């Protein structure tokens, strides 16, 4: 029981890479935020998507650590 309690105090990061996933990114973020575990960050990276996934990600901006790499050559 103590091990589980200690784990529940740990802060975790959920890292979601995205590239042209407008059909799934919204559901993915909704699932992450519907978790009963509340000690976590969600980090989304988007590497110059050409669909509207960046706009969908921005709808969750208040809850995210966002890294939208727009117009960056890599």
Characterization of this structure:
The chain is an alpha/beta fold. It has one domain (2-69). Helix content is 30%, strand content 27%. It contains 3 helices and 3 strands; from the N terminus they run αβαβαβ. The chain has helices at residues 2-8, 25-33, 53-58; strands at 12-18, 40-47, 65-69. The protein has a 3-stranded parallel beta sheet. It is elongated. The N and C termini lie far apart (47 Å). The model has no long low-confidence stretch (mean pLDDT 83).
Short structural summary:
The chain has helices at 2-8, 25-33, 53-58; strands at residues 12-18, 40-47, 65-69. By secondary structure, the protein is an alpha/beta fold.
Kindly list the characteristics that best describe this protein:
74 residues, 30% helix, alpha/beta
Strand content: 25-35%
| Total count of domains | 1
- How many E strands? 3
Q: Which shape, going by the Cα principal axes?
A: elongated
> How far apart are the termini?
47 Å
How many strands, what sense, and barrel or not for the largest sheet?
A: 3 strands, parallel
User: Average pLDDT, to the nearest integer?
Assistant: 83
Structural class: alpha/beta
Low-pLDDT windows of residues: none
**Widest sheet, order of strands:** 1-2-3
Q: How big is the Rg?
A: 14 Å
How many helical elements?
3
Share in helix = 25-40%
Order of secondary-structure elements = HEHEHE
> Which assembly state applies to the chains in this document?
single chain
Q: Which helices and strands appear, and what pairs or packs with what?
A:
Blueprint: H1 2-8, E1 12-18, H2 25-33, E2 40-47, H3 53-58, E3 65-69
Parallel strand pairs: 1-2, 2-3
